[in-house]
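To whoever picks this up:

The nightly regression suite flagged Putative colanic acid biosysnthesis UDP-glucose lipid carrier transferase as changed. Nothing in the input moved, so I suspect the structure step. Input below, exactly as stored in the fixture:
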Amino acid sequence: MKWNTDVSYYIRLLIDYVVLTLFFLCTRRYIAGQGDVFFSSFNWLLLGISLMAWTIIGISVHLYDDFRTRPFSIELVAILKTVLIHACLLTFLFFYFFKYYPYPRTFTLLYNLLVFSGIAIVKYIVKKSLLRLQIMGYNTKNVLIVGTGDMGMNFYKTILDNEHFGYRCVGFVDEQTNTHLNGQFLGTLPDLKRILEEHDIDDVVVAMPGGLNEQLHQIIVMSEQEAKRVRIIADCYNYCTTTASMHLCGNLPLLTIRSSPLDDPARQRLKRFLDVTISILLFISMFSWLFPIIALLIKLTSKGPVLYKQERWGLKNRKITCYKFRSMVRDCDMVDASGRFLQATPNDKRITPIGKFLRKSSLDELPQFINVLRGDMTLVGPRPHAIPLHMESKQTIQRYMLRHLVKPGITGWAQVNGCRGETRLPGQMQKRVDLDLWYIENYSCWLDCQIILQTCMNIIKGDKQAY
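Regenerated output under the current build:
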């Protein structure tokens, strides 16, 4: 049994309307204006505006897209965006357009808090319910796979292992007869028109290598004549990631095998704005008096400069000068006899007494806010490494250089997940790189806020890897 996509869309929208109406009435009952009538025309007007605003915002932020093949966390972010914009819009409309608005400001706040929690819970229940129904055979799409090679069989295995995608394989078609598919081989390419007529098929998935592209035109024409949607698996699927994207350059489709939200110039500008704003506020409120105190302590306890400058690699593998408070004795060895970078270790004799405190509390990193203001670094991003360690990792760690698609950061996703300090054991650097790449591919302003908050918590409670 299949449900029409439009019907599913309107059912989800209707469920949201019910939740919005219910919590509007609950909030109205809890916070009542003086002399207010429960079912007054004014209340119905406010509710109507709320529903209309929710619909427009939800569609704009893709809240009602098909989330079957994506984790619930992505849908939750869309819900949060919708609620925040909904709250801001209602606040603006209610307090600037209604002169005699009868409710206190807490009405809008409480209403949207209830809406966020209610919508999130309902959508989670709906998602789990749909998954259970799909496993039982409801609301599935029937697909015909054209191609029985590695590409076709990998796609078949993928939809078998992920029942929540909602796909059911009707059978296979290929150039040559394949008798090893347990009766699922329906015929060869010349039989395609007959197969499409005889079977209930929604999508035709073409999974053939590039060398057989001469048949592709014929497959598309026959499928579209039978009103079937054609989907083509790119021949370079082995190299694609979960963030692969495609756009048109004229009439030519360009496939990007690895993309990031930070490829968007608007997000780059927002991130830069937040970097500069937070850095300036910290300089005004804290650093103006904290920097001189730390500088004085360094001067009183060891010889040498206050700041330690080290050349590192930044965005697009360009060299930057990274600033830190000096935490080691002057002119100490940074590489061993074989030229291998000497990473800091517990009870490292090169670290000064005040340097030990600075490193433990991460205060030695504070001058890097200068790098942030200069534009060399950002608050949150992959940590830059010393050049000897960088050159070594570049040759031995998979996808290491992809970290340099974005600016390096003072703190990062790897650091708040325990990947800081030494990387001498096998796999330590690879895990750090994998976490950095996850951050790059899943960046959001909310994720940056979470990382900053986690960093502050780690500093307060102490990090055993900080030495």
